[in-house]
Write a structure and sequence with these properties.
alpha+beta, four-stranded antiparallel beta sheet
């Protein structure tokens, strides 16, 4: 069992935060996921038709993350929140990246709802996962760069387990160690908002959409919610 925890200092600084933790066990990443393909194709077609576009940096959902990044010393136009970077890529190229079915699923839900998302292979997570301020001694190996070691700056918000950092700049980039692949069978997906009062219903809709895509290819799925009022959930 793994617990996800929001540190008191982060909860105090971002008191309207709500995080959905969607878990899937017995995930089957090697079979076709036609529903996920259909969601991706629909978004791309809507973008092409001019019927929809990804949330940009002036959208309140994205703007909130830019403000948060600046609060802990990160320039959000150089190091962008994941949903911001994904939306910009989609708007420019007209297509979403195709990684693997599980990753494609959360990317599609993320960009559709304008909410940052990420995922961790729980079989490679050690101990519990804390959302906290970095102290500067932690180590992070970026996704796709197994030979690289970075040290988050003190005060940067990170996800971390007992081995190291799982995400930098809160949700900019995931770690290589806990990356989700076709072989991952026990995964925790996260979707986040800093304004639950305004956007909590969007987050819950997105979490159920993601669960709906996952449950077709998993033995069991669940949705948990993490907030300053409920700062720990065990998955």
């Amino acid at each position: 069992m793994t617990s996800f925890r929001i540190a008191p200092a982060v909860a105090d600084a971002f008191s309207d935060t709500l995080i959905a933790v969607v878990t899937a066990t017995g995930l089957r990443g090697h079979e076709p996921w036609p529903d996920t393909v259909a969601v991706m194709e629909t978004l791309e077609q809507q973008l092409s038709d001019g019927a929809w576009q990804p949330a940009g940096e002036t959208d309140p959902r994205i703007e909130a993350w830019h403000t948060a990044y600046r609060s802990f010393g990160t320039n959000p136009r150089r190091v962008r929140p994941s949903v911001d970077a994904l939306g910009r890529r989609l708007a420019k190229k007209g297509t979403l990246p195709q990684i693997n079915p599980a990753v494609d699923s959360y990317n599609a839900v993320s960009v559709r709802h304008g909410l940052p998302a990420g995922a961790f292979d729980l079989d490679h997570v050690t101990g519990n996962v804390d959302i906290r301020y970095a102290d500067g001694t932690e180590e992070f190996t970026p996704l796709g760069e197994p030979g690289t070691i970075e040290n988050p700056k003190p005060g940067e918000i990170i996800y971390a387990d007992t081995t190291g950092v799982l995400t930098r700049h809160w949700n900019h980039r995931d770690a290589h160690r806990t990356r989700v692949t076709e072989d991952s069978t026990h995964v925790a997906f996260v979707l986040e908002t800093l304004h639950a009062t305004r956007d909590g219903h969007h987050l819950k809709t997105a979490a159920e959409e993601l669960r709906g895509l996952l449950m077709l290819h998993a033995e069991q799925t669940r949705v948990h919610y993490l907030s300053p009022e409920q700062p720990e959930v065990t998955v």
